[in-house]
C-alpha cells in the first residue's frame, strides 16, 4: 500500500509560491503542487482562474466569519473536502460547482458524520 504513495511523482509535494492580488493587495500563497493542481481543477469547473478561485474562497471565508490567519491550511482543507465529496458522489464530475446544491451536500455530509459517530 505505501508503495502507491512513496512512488508518486515527487513534483507533487514540491512547494510553489504564487503572488495573488486580493482587494488590491498582493499576498503570497505557498502550497504543494498537488494542491495547486486541485485548485486549478476546482476553478476550471466554473471557468475561474486559480487566482480568481482563491480570491472568491477568501471572501466567502471572511463572510462566514473564518479566521484568515492560516489561509493556506484552509485552502488545503478545501482541496481535501472537494476530493472527498467527489469520492462520495456528492460532487459529480463535469458540473460547475456553482450549480450544485451546497445545502443538500452539506446535509448529506453531516448525516454521514453522525452515522460514524
From TrEMBL:
GO molecular function terms listed in the Swiss-Prot or TrEMBL record: DNA binding
Keywords associated with the record: DNA-binding
InterPro entries: RHH_dom (IPR027373), RHH_sf (IPR038268)
Domain Ribbon-helix-helix: 16-83
Organism superkingdom: Bacteria
Presence of keyword Chaperone: no
Protein name: Putative DNA-binding ribbon-helix-helix protein
Organism: Martelella radicis
Amino acid at each position: 500500500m505505501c508503495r502507491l504513495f512513496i512512488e508518486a511523482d515527487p513534483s507533487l509535494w514540491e512547494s510553489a509560491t504564487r503572488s495573488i492580488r486580493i482587494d488590491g493587495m498582493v499576498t503570497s500563497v505557498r502550497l504543494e503542487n498537488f494542491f495547486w493542481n486541485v485548485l486549478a481543477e476546482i476553478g476550471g469547473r466554473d471557468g475561474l482562474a486559480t487566482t480568481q478561485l482563491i480570491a472568491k474562497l477568501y471572501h466567502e471565508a471572511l463572510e462566514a466569519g473564518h479566521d484568515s490567519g492560516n489561509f493556506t491550511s484552509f485552502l488545503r482543507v478545501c482541496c481535501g473536502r472537494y476530493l472527498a465529496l467527489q469520492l462520495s458522489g456528492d460532487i459529480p464530475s463535469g458540473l460547475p460547482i456553482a450549480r450544485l446544491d451546497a445545502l443538500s451536500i452539506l446535509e448529506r455530509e453531516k448525516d454521514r458524520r453522525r452515522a460514524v459517530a
